[in-house]
Write a structure and sequence with these properties.
- The complex is a heterotrimer of chains A (about 90), B (about 280) and C (about 350).
- Helices cover about 40% and strands about 25% of the residues of chain A.
- Chain A is built from two helices and four strands, in the order E-E-E-H-E-H.
- In chain A, strand 1 and strand 2 form a beta hairpin.
- Chain A is globular.
- With about 280 residues, chain B is of the alpha/beta class.
- Chain B folds into two domains: about 220 residues, Phosphoenolpyruvate-binding domains (TIM Barrel), CATH 3.20.20; about 50 residues, no CATH class.
- Chain B has twelve helices and ten strands.
- In chain B, helix 11 crosses helix 12.
- By secondary structure, chain C is α/β, with parallel strands linked by helices.
- Chain C folds into two domains: about 120 residues, Gcn5-related N-acetyltransferase (GNAT) (Aminopeptidase), CATH 3.40.630; about 210 residues, Rossmann fold (3-Layer(aba) Sandwich), CATH 3.40.50.
- In chain C, the strands form three sheets. A seven-stranded mixed β-sheet of chain C has the order 1-2-3-4-5-7-6, with helices on both faces.
- The chains are: A alpha+beta (about 90), B alpha/beta (about 280), C alpha/beta (about 350).
- Chains in contact: A-B, A-C, B-C.
- At the A-C interface, strand 1, strand 2 and strand 4 of A face helix 2 of C.
């Protein structure tokens, strides 16, 4: 699968995260989190792992995290990726 | 078993899903239907898929989208994968209940199907709906849509739903399943909720749905087995056991004949009390 | 933990529109005419929070005091971002008062500019950084660069005159075209007619204005031509963005504009430019417009003639390329739109 178009998923509500994607040659993940200091690494790891499972190697991901726990991050990555991979 | 209270949780909201663990509702119904807008069904399924594996709680139900929509198959796939206990089927018809039961009976676990009765037709066909699948363990009444289908105005007093309530409660008792009453839509009106719940219980409902966690305590209290009732039921069972020991088929308690139906009712009551925590035996 | 319901407030339903106006008024806010869409959060039947949208710009935020702690703005903004994505618009702006800047920054919005007491923030994909990167591809080093921002609805001999005058005062001239598609001649046509109309003049670069030069985000008043206090802060914001982003990206040291004898908004804009550009070391030069038969040539004049069916004298106002377009089948369609609009306004 490959990101073919712009897409978003999630929200800015607390315990959620909002992710936007657009096509890009390489894989770029930009994360902004309210818990960056404590959980920044785990958040990135969860996102990269989910993308790896989905076979995504390119695309620009902009993640705004409002304290989403692991399952929510992964779910949002899955949704936005599927939306971004759909036919135009 | 659904129990006394069943709280709807919007499947699209992580904060509410996270908080749901702390709610004291007997059953949680994760809602993929009304609470989720059409463009967000996919996101809600992904979220629920991840969340259900993490919630250590019994009695998790999923309200799927109606069979007239394009979403229900994916909802059922998620349901089967999730390991949750029950499925709430909106705008249920006998045909819908049959189709859904056919698909989900392949899974090896015990599953409840709870048809949501929210049309005039559904009320009339209630016996067919209950009888068409052994998986139907309870029914849930949805008064808002029911009133739309009747073209009548929904009021707080609820005279317009008196017939439907009585009919559904009667049918549920006739077939030995649970009957859940419609939610009370004003979450701020605790007194109104209490009245409404007491009325539903008096008609024969076993519990009531909730749309706000604030409503749970009132509902649980109303539909709990009362201490005196429980005491009486325990006495009946004890007397029956003694009668059996001494070889008597029929016996009396407080100068009243106790027959099989009374004994059965007492057993059911004790079971409810055991499950929903009024009794710690 | 709030169980609130999000619903559309239908602006085409009078009772709902009035209700929204009343709600906004409680917070000292007005319902702007350009609002396309409005959503509200309800607690039961009671409206407790609203947000409005016009194009890419979110505005008219109001949350009842007793609900402030619940961060309802985050729900409203999320829903609007979602709706914009559905419309294939991947960014949004918030035009708000200074005191709410931090609130929106906490929702991922990035501050991009200020005018008076108003601030502009943006979020989403393809923000101001991408815009600057695109501009830099056209950058010219070691030359005296000037710029002129034009809408050209459509391109006239007056525009051509301004460009020639401006070009005589610099080495490379950037024509920045207003990209917003709220003019009768669409952006692609306006751009094409400019390119054709100036192709004999060397060292001119035509640049798209994007969202950052006279757009509905930076300068909504420009498109509504309304006289109010906000025009000043909007004009100041627009000029500040030019100073902050466009001018350094393109290495611009001069900005030109046609003198404005008639239009209130444009004359305010020119005044604001005169005040602010010089302070930032950018020269501002106002050029007197070209006249024909003792009247200033303007695009408005051209549209009026089209409306009156007076095609014979158009050649005095527009170059051949524009005239050819107006007479083409595609041009005829636009002429019909012009006639329709002007009749509605009673100006034709």
């Amino acid at each position: 699968m490959k990101i073919m178009k712009e897409a978003m998923a999630g929200s800015l509500e607390s315990s959620d995260c909002l992710i936007m994607v657009k096509p890009s040659e390489k894989l770029e993940i930009e994360i902004e989190s309210i818990v960056q200091k404590r959980y920044g690494k785990q958040i990135r790891a969860a996102i990269e792992e989910t993308l790896d499972e989905m076979g995504i190697t390119s695309g620009y991901y902009k993640v705004q995290d409002k304290g989403a726990i692991d399952y929510c991050l992964r779910a949002r990555v899955q949704t936005v990726t599927r939306r971004g991979c759909e036919e135009q | 078993m659904i129990g006394r209270s069943a709280l709807f949780i919007p499947a699209s909201s992580p904060s509410m899903i996270n908080a749901s663990i702390a709610f004291r509702a007997d059953t949680l119904i994760f809602d993929l239907e009304d609470a989720v807008s059409i463009g967000e069904k996919d996101a809600a399924r992904d979220l629920l898929d991840g969340a259900l594996g993490q919630i250590e709680k019994k009695n998790l139900f999923i309200r799927i989208n109606p069979l007239s929509s394009a979403f229900w198959r994916a909802d059922i796939e998620l349901f089967l994968k999730s390991g949750s206990q029950g499925i709430v089927l909106p705008k249920a018809t006998p045909g819908d209940v049959k189709s859904v039961s056919e698909i989900i009976k392949q899974s090896n676990r015990e599953i409840s199907v709870v048809p949501l009765i929210e049309t005039a037709r559904g009320v009339e066909e209630i016996t067919d709906i209950i009888q068409c699948s052994p998986l139907v363990s309870g029914i849930l009444f949805g008064a808002e849509d029911y009133c739309l289908s009747m073209g009548v105005k929904r009021t707080k007093e609820g005279r317009e739903i008196a017939y439907a309530r009585a009919r559904l409660a009667n049918a549920a008792h006739a077939y030995g399943i649970e009957a859940m009453d419609t939610p009370f839509t004003n979450a701020d009106d605790a007194e109104g909720l209490n009245k409404d719940a007491v009325l539903a219980k008096s008609l024969g409902f076993s519990g009531k749905a909730a749309i706000n966690p604030r409503q749970i305590d009132v509902i649980n209290k109303t539909f709990s087995v009362e201490a005196a009732e429980l005491e009486q039921a325990l006495r009946i069972i004890r007397a029956m056991e003694e009668a059996e020991k001494s070889g008597k088929g029929v016996f009396s308690l407080d100068r009243q004949m106790i027959d099989a139906p009374i004994a059965q009712r007492a057993r059911k009551l004790i079971k409810r009390a055991q499950i929903w925590g009024e009794m710690s035996c | 933990m709030m169980f609130l319901k999000l619903m559309d407030i239908r602006l085409d339903v009078k009772t709902q529109r009035e209700m929204l106006k009343g709600f906004l008024a409680e917070f000292g806010l007005l319902l702007d005419e350009d609002v396309e869409e409005s959503i509200g959060l309800y607690d039961g039947k009671e409206l407790v929070a609203v947000c409005c949208r016009s194009g890419k710009v979110l505005k008219g935020f109001a949350v009842r005091n007793s609900y402030r702690e619940h961060n309802l703005t985050s729900s409203l903004v999320s829903e609007m971002i979602r709706r914009l994505f559905d419309k294939r618009i991947y960014k949004s702006f918030v035009f708000t008062r200074q005191k709410y800047k931090e609130k929106f920054e906490s929702l991922g919005y990035r501050f991009i500019g200020q005018g008076g007491s108003a601030v502009l923030l943006e979020t989403g994909l393809n923000g101001v950084d991408e815009y600057i990167a695109r501009l830099k591809e056209q950058r010219s080093e070691g030359t005296v660069n000037g710029s002129i921002i034009m809408n050209c609805n459509p391109f006239t001999l007056g525009h051509r005159y301004l460009i020639k005058q401006a070009k005589s005062m610099c080495e490379v001239l950037f024509i920045i075209i207003v990209e917003e598609d709220s003019s009768l001649f669409p952006f692609s046509v306006r751009k094409q007619l400019i390119i054709e109309g100036i192709k004999d003049i060397p060292d001119i670069k035509v640049v798209d204005g994007g969202d950052y030069t006279i757009s509905s985000a930076t300068f909504p008043g420009y498109f509504f031509k309304k006289e109010n206090d906000r025009i000043y802060s909007e004009a100041a914001l627009d000029v500040n963005l030019f100073i902050k982003y466009t001018a350094p990206a393109l290495n611009i040291s001069k900005r030109f504009a046609g003198s404005e004898p008639f239009d209130y908004v444009t004359s305010v804009y020119n005044n604001v430019m005169r005040e602010n550009l010089v302070k930032s070391g950018i020269e501002f030069i106002e050029i007197e417009r070209l006249k024909s038969d003792d009247r200033y040539i303007s695009a408005t004049e051209v549209r009026k003639k089209i409306c009156a069916g007076d095609f014979n004298s158009l050649h005095k106002l527009v170059p051949e390329s524009t005239l050819n377009f107006i007479m083409s089948p595609e041009g005829e369609k636009i002429s019909e739109k012009i006639i329709h609009k002007y009749r509605l306004l009673g100006e034709c």
